[in-house]
Every structure is written in C-alpha cells, then in structure tokens.
Amino acid sequence: MKLNLGCGNKIYDGYVNVDKFDIYNVDIKHDLEKFPYPFEDDSVEEIILSHVLEHIGQDPDIFIKILKEFYRVCKNEALIKIAVPHPRHDDFLSDPTHVRPVTVLGLSLFDKSLNEKWEKSGAANTPLALIHNVNFKVENVNYQIEADIIKQYESGEIDKSKLDNMIKRNNNVVKQIDIEWRVIK
What is the pTM of this model? Predict the structure, then answer.
C-alpha cells in the first residue's frame, strides 16, 4: 500500500489519499495527530508527505507519536517522500499554520546508526532513534533554489562556494527541501 498523507487537493492514483478534511473527496478522512492510524503494522511501502510535516506536531510529544506511527505502519525499506518549505524562506515564515521547521539534521536525529556514532564521539545530538526505538535514514536531499539565485549561479555571477554559503546563511534562497527518508527495521 502507498499513502498520500495530508493530501489536500493532490489526489494521486495508486495511493490511499488521506486528509483531515474531506472537501477533496479523499479515500480516508483522518487527522494525523490522532492515534492510532487506520492502517495495519508493516503494511505501507511508501508515504508521500507534500507540505504536511510543517503543519503537524507542534507539541513535540505529538510529533514523536506521528513519527512512531509512520514507523509502525511502514514495512522495512519503505520510502517516505517529504517536501517542506525551507525554514528560512518567506513561504515557511508567512504561513500561520506552519508549526515546526523541518530540517535534514532534525530528521537525522531518528537514525540509529548516527545516534550510536554521536554517542561514541560525545556529541550533544539527542539520540531520538534510540530513545523511541525507530530508525529512519535520510537517503536523498534536494534543495529547490529560487529562480533568481539559479540565474546568478548559471551566469557565473556567483560560484558554487558562494551559493553554498548563501544556502547555509541567507533567507529566501532555498524555496523547498525534498527529502527521501528510508524506514529501517
């Protein structure tokens, strides 16, 4: 089974389209902050979360429960495809329904092998995968850069080093982050 969680008006064939509101003729009406989800353990091979995670789990305990539900319903090696606005972009900052920034490092806190590595090195990163007995691995990350910044890069006005510095430090450079997150059981 493939899930499109928090689908809104993005209804995809071949997916079970789930949303809190049923105004778009969804397959299942369900609030992602209510537990348990209406799916069997180890039954899901893929989840799409397109502009969803930044809207749910304002309370950290609820956010952890959401991720634990993803882990429960997913099969080993299931892929979770996440698209979120970059936390330093006006698209994220301007929407009052955005309750949490989603970052690659934040999602990496749920990777058991990284948790163990950090523990051995004495790093201060919170070992959330070990604490909550889940294991997700960030496999791929793509930053969607604003068109005007891409033009500057392609014209040679800014080089790769400058672009990387801008991505790391400036607002309104990265519009969206696309992350592929693998479930490991």
Answer: 0.95
- Output DSSP code: residue 54: G
Q: Is the pLDDT of residue 7 over 90?
A: yes
Domain with residue 36: its CATH number is 3.40.50.150
- The verdict on residue 141 lying in a domain is yes
Domain range for 11: 2-145+175-183
Q: What is the Cα–Cα distance from 75 to 49, expressed in whole angstroms?
A: 17
Q: Are 145 and 173 in contact (CB under 8 A)?
A: yes
What is the rounded end-to-end Cα distance, in angstroms, of the chain? 17
Cα–Cα–Cα angle for 160, 166, 167, rounded to 5 degrees: 90
H or E element: which one contains 49?
strand 44-50
What span, in angstroms and rounded, lies between the C-alpha atoms of 81 and 55? Answer: 16
User: Across-strand partners of 49?
Assistant: 82
